[in-house]
Design goal:
By secondary structure, this protein is an all-alpha fold. The chain folds into three domains: 412 residues, Up-down Bundle (Na+/H+ antiporter like fold); 54 residues; 47 residues. The chain is 76% helix and 0% strand. Helix 2 runs antiparallel to helix 16 and helix 5 crosses helix 8. The mean pLDDT is 79.
């Protein structure tokens, strides 16, 4: 396939993605569900476009930016507060799912080596937070559950992908990988990757703070993201752990020096990039599966369906059993000890375990790691089919029922974040007022009155985040609309040129953003 054909295919994929997003918003469905349906349609369609990704390239292409995006938004404070449930999901739930899946695969298909069975177990073990958070976007959960799901989504990728890489290495080494090889590799991956991630974040942070324009800043962000992955690979480290450490370190330092004019466009670009990667991953796996399904022997597809269904049932049941058991045990321990609920939220119970367990939809990570299986991997076609079956099945079964389940359980928001926003709003307003001491003049009086209003409203608010509705907001919006209308008319009438137009347009856009925050 020539480069032009690949380019045309990618354009068609992106156009399809825009259409699916519009449909998802219209029918209020999580977009990963529609992406999975589109991938399945491509897999069964009688078409072979000949588009195949190199396995190692697939892993780096899809996983590196998604890991960085997830790790950047992770709260270290909240992870520390809720480390026990997060760790139980990251270590125990992932481990149990991997082992149970490997047992099912090896039992149903004895020709699959144990190392290969463990690899497929690691592929389907980590849930994907994108689908769950998309489903629950308009449903406000207790803060503790949100933190657990977000923390798990980041860290279980790291733990599952580490198991996956060791299992694949064992298969390539002939089926076995002794403790003498695993232990040093694990220690190097753990400690070396953490140190490398911190050091790379420090070094790259020194470079990025010197950049003053948004395009250069965004390009450097992407280059450094993939660069960190490549460096870790070349050094024999775990690119997953390195990327997680790198992103979490950057998240603690960049807000202090990255200006808003660089941060806002970079957030928009990263959100778009993660969406595009989701689209490409689901559609590419459909294109990969198409020729595999077409070339399958008679009766082989039935066997693949059986294996995929068995793995799907296994991953759902193992997660549910563990989350329900852990939640009930935690509830009983707190009641017996007379302690408060972790993080000060509502007491965990069976509802907590059910929601966390049912939020185990699989997504991009499962699809990408399945695509990264070497072409000569034992039963690669069946394992690729099974991985997509699990992703497709969890998105349909759990993705479409998670929102009704949460609404039926009546698990309302505990207002933790709103309380913290009110406290921060009061503190920042008071700091701003302190900074104005000794100033005078009309501008000072106007700004002081605005800050006083914001502090008073936030302090008096009993619910919500205490955001003030300032009286001049409507007037500011009306003035900006008229200024923009006049500016457009002057440009269209040839009174001013495009350079002058765009300079003033940028000023009005920033003013619009400022007004939009004063609601």
């Amino acid at each position: 396939m020539n480069a032009m054909s690949v380019f045309e295919i990618i354009l068609v994929m992106l156009a399809v993605a825009v259409f699916l997003l519009a449909v998802a918003r219209q029918v209020k469905l999580p977009y990963p569900v529609l992406l999975a349906i589109a991938g399945a349609a491509l897999a069964v369609a009688p078409v072979d476009l000949g588009l195949h990704l190199d396995p190692q390239f697939a892993l780096a292409l899809f996983i590196a930016p998604v890991l960085l995006d997830a790790a950047y938004d992770t709260s270290l404070r909240d992870l520390k507060r809720h480390w026990a449930p997060v760790a139980s999901l990251v270590l125990i739930a992932v481990g149990l799912t991997t082992i149970a899946t490997a047992f099912v695969v090896h039992t149903l298909v004895p020709t699959v080596p144990w190392a290969a069975a463990i690899a497929i177990g690691a592929i389907v073990a980590p849930p994907d937070a994108v689908a769950a958070t998309t489903v629950l976007r308009d449903v406000r959960l207790p803060h503790r559950i949100s933190v657990i799901l977000e923390g798990e989504a980041l860290l279980n990728d790291a733990s599952a992908l580490l198991i996956y890489r060791l299992a694949v290495a064992a298969v390539l080494a002939g089926g076995t990988l002794g403790t003498e090889a695993i232990a040093p590799a694990f220690l190097l991956s753990l400690f070396g990757s953490v140190i490398a991630g911190w050091a790379l974040a420090w070094a790259i942070g020194r470079v990025t703070r010197q950049i003053a324009d948004a395009p250069s800043s965004i390009i450097v962000q992407f280059v450094s993201t993939y660069g960190v992955w490549v460096i870790a690979e070349r050094c024999g480290l775990s690119p997953i752990l390195t990327m997680v450490t790198y992103a979490m370190t950057l998240a603690r330092s960049t807000p202090g020096y990255l200006p808003a004019r660089l941060r806002l466009p970079s957030y928009a670009v990263w959100e778009t990039a993660v969406l595009v990667l989701n689209v490409l991953a689901f559609l590419v796996i459909g294109l990969e599966l198409g020729p595999i399904i077409a070339a399958a022997e008679p009766g082989e597809l039935r066997r693949w369906f059986g294996v995929g269904a068995a793995i799907l049932a296994t991953v759902i049941m193992v997660r549910l059993l563990w989350t329900m058991t852990a939640a009930l045990w935690t509830h009983r321990r707190i009641i017996r000890g007379g302690a408060a609920a972790p993080g000060g939220g509502p007491l965990p119970g069976w509802r907590t375990g059910l929601v966390i367990g049912w939020a185990g939809t699989r997504g991009l990570v499962t699809v990408a790691t399945a695509l990264a299986l070497p072409h000569d991997f034992p039963e690669r076609g069946m394992l690729l089919f099974a991985a997509f079956t699990v992703t497709f099945g969890t998105l349909l079964i759990q993705g479409l029922t998670l929102r009704p389940l949460v609404l039926a359980l009546r698990m309302g928001d505990d207002a933790t974040v709103d309380r913290e926003v009110r406290a921060a709003r009061i503190a920042t307003a008071e700091a701003a007022l302190d900074a104005l001491r000794g100033e005078s003049g009309r501008e000072f009086e106007m700004l002081q009155a605005e800050l006083d209003t914001e502090r008073r409203i936030a302090a008096a608010a009993g619910q919500g985040d205490g955001r003030p509705t300032l009286p001049e907001k409507a007037l500011r919006a009306k003035v900006l609309a008229e200024r923009r209308k006049t500016l457009l008319a002057m440009r269209n009438g040839g009174v001013i040129g495009d350079e002058a137009f765009h300079r003033l347009e940028e000023e009005l856009d920033l003013a619009d953003l400022a007004v939009a925050t004063r609601t």
